[in-house]
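hey m, so remember when u said the tokens were messed up on ur end? i reran from scratch. heres the input so u can diff it against urs
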Amino acid sequence: MQNLSNGATSNGSYLDRTFHLSEQNTTVGRELLAGLTTFVSMAYILFVNPIILGAAGMDKGAVFTATALSAIIGCLLMAFLANYPIAIAPGLGDNAFFTFSVVLGMGIPWEKAMAGVFVASVLFTILSFLKVREIVIDAIPKDLKLAMAAGIGIFIAFVGMQGGGLIVADKSSLVAIGSFTVPTTWLTIFGIFVIAILMAKKVPGSIFIGLVATAVLGLATGLIKAPSSIISLAPSLKPTFGVGVEHLPSIADPQMWAVVLIFLLVAFFDTAGTLIGLAQQAGIMKNNKMPRIGRALMADSISMLAGSVMGTTPTAAYVESSAGIAVGGRTGLTSLTTGILFAFSMLFSPLLTVVTDQVTAPALIVVGVLMVSALSEIHWNQFEIALPAFLTVIGMPLTYNISYGIAFGFLTYPILMTVAGRRKEVNYIMWIMLFVFVLLLYVLNVIPKS
């Protein structure tokens, strides 16, 4: 009988055969610990997602359940289809875009917006099956992928600072610093420092621990009302389940297709960059390519489709999976463990009432910091790359719209690269994307129609 240090026990032989633990030089115990670490690091999405989508008018309880179920489906698919230690759950960037850009910004009812997500999910799954997604991803220059990740990070942090009361609207300067005489603002400040200190000390699950600590302080000081209970059955999915399917608008509706196109583009780039980065960290990359990336993308697209039916925004591979990889996670057993823990978490929905904007704000701000780290890898010394990257990054928070930031980059990159004598480095797909974004801006009434 093999011992645990050799990769499996007699009881773990099935796991060894299924997840190829010995081939990856890992053990059952190490994978279980990695899965727990990943879950603790990303469990905040269970509480943050309902808050963000709740601002769009969606039922928070139903969103909580949809979030957990879509995460379970995504993690299980990633485990058994691709055998990667990468967890999937509704993405922070996508839910922020859904609420603040589509519903609040464009004035589209959340039911219609969710229908757009459903259509995008169907197309997304088809494109993944046909491997079109892989082709397009390969055509996007690395610098723009990095700029998109960083821009979404800044946007998310901006939303967090706004929700936490650190910044407020101002008629003369658009934004200004918030008032420190407001007690709840100090909850946000406390949470930021707790998470920052824990992150600096490299404590696993720093974001989740900080979220819990902030909520506890709010309860202790009376700034947050205590819940009537802690454990209960998961809330019903009825308020959101199938809404996107039921409210499918006319195929001739340009507003709907604008939403579909935007979510397709955002989802296209969201998971790809994260997958590649995590694969590099785990030592999975071979010859600068990621084995089984098609299966990983399929796991992402199917979970996105399931989530859109249940009532949540697109799923994505989570950068917090890096925490589990850092403690030794190398196979799908890690993501399977994370999915099982998400299943157990569905019993704690009453805690939603204590997770206020001030509690989630520190998590949003710190996740923004993690995403902005991508800026360090952009070639800023090459202006034909620097300007599109800069416009992508700065366009998202300043227009309060993720799609506009992406458009700025895609509209300028092919042109500047051509002018700089580097036309051969621009894939023809980038020119197609340029015209796609021109059409998108036209549909959104940014470009005059006459």
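this time it looks ok to me. The radius of gyration is 22 Å. if urs says something different then somethings off w ur setup not the seq
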